[in-house]
Amino acid sequence: GAGVSQSPSNKVTEKGKDVELRCDPISGHTALYWYRQSLGQGLEFLIYFQGNSAPDKSGLPSDRFSAERTGGSVSTLTIQRTQQEDSAVYLCASSLGTGQKPYNEQFFGPGTRLTVL
Amino acid sequence: AQSVTQLDSQVPVFEEAPVELRCNYSSSVSVYLFWYVQYPNQGLQLLLKYLSGSTLVKGINGFEAEFNKSQTSFHLRKPSVHISDTAEYFCAVSPRGYTGGFKTIFGAGTRLFVKA
């Protein structure tokens, strides 16, 4: 079956503009995660969804960042008034619902490379 | 809180040589441990995981890792690498019983470069 998909694959924007990044999880996966991968800094957890709700938003770096998920499927990560330090690869992952067993593997999408000029 | 330290940012190695990628973690609670691999221009793929039981775990592509609780380490090894193993490798931990969901903390990554 299809894996996690993300769009666009690349996004170049000007400082101060808003951007939307999209994630389509694997069908049937109720948990969805957003991470940011900056050069040389590994993956930084941003936000986690269980269904349409976000129990953990602790990783969002500022109030310019927001995310939503509708219909328990597609998620959008929005960055308002982009800054150059927002440049990174944004990765999405999905997994079966948590709490059902100790561990559910996260499956990652290919990422969106965001460049803020 | 948890943290993960990957001790080498880059590891060059010749083809067919053995390799060890080092990972140490810090946590006040018990954790699950993972290694992920990221090939160029691709998403992360789970290589192996330690949840419980035997401390030596085997993963895909001939990789294995050993959990050492006293040293809080989870080093990744392969006895003979191939050119195709060139990739970035991430060590990660997740706290057991994390009530807020399933949170994974990643290390900064180790770039393995296999030379002919």
Could you characterize what this model shows?
By secondary structure, chain A is mostly beta strands. Helices cover 0% and strands 49% of the residues of chain A. Chain A has strands at residues 5-7, 10-13, 19-24, 31-37, 43-50, 53-56, 65-69, 75-79, 88-95, 107-108, 112-116. Chain A is globular, with a radius of gyration of 14 Å. Chain B is an all-beta fold and 116 residues long. Chain B is built from no helices and twelve strands. Chain B has strands spanning 2-6, 10-14, 19-21, 23-27, 31-38, 44-50, 56-58, 64-68, 73-78, 87-95, 105-106, 110-115. In chain B, the strands form three sheets. In chain B, strands 2, 5, 6, 10, 11 and 12 form a six-stranded mixed sheet that branches. Chain B is globular, with a radius of gyration of 14 Å. The relative contact order of chain B is 0.32. At the A-B interface, β4, β5 and β9 of A face β6, β10 and β11 of B.
Percentage of β-strand residues of chain B:
over 45%
Computed Rg of chain B: 14 Å
Percent strand of chain A: over 45%
- Which parts of chain A are unreliable, with pLDDT below 50 for 5 consecutive residues or more? none
Q: What would the average pLDDT of chain A be, to the nearest integer?
A: 89
How many strand segments of chain A?
A: 11
Q: Could you give the distance between the termini of chain B?
A: 41 Å
What can be said about the biggest beta sheet of chain B? 6 strands, mixed
Helix/strand-derived category of chain A reads mainly beta
Average residue-wise pLDDT of chain B: 90
The SSE order of chain B reads EEEEEEEEEEEE
Form type of chain B = globular
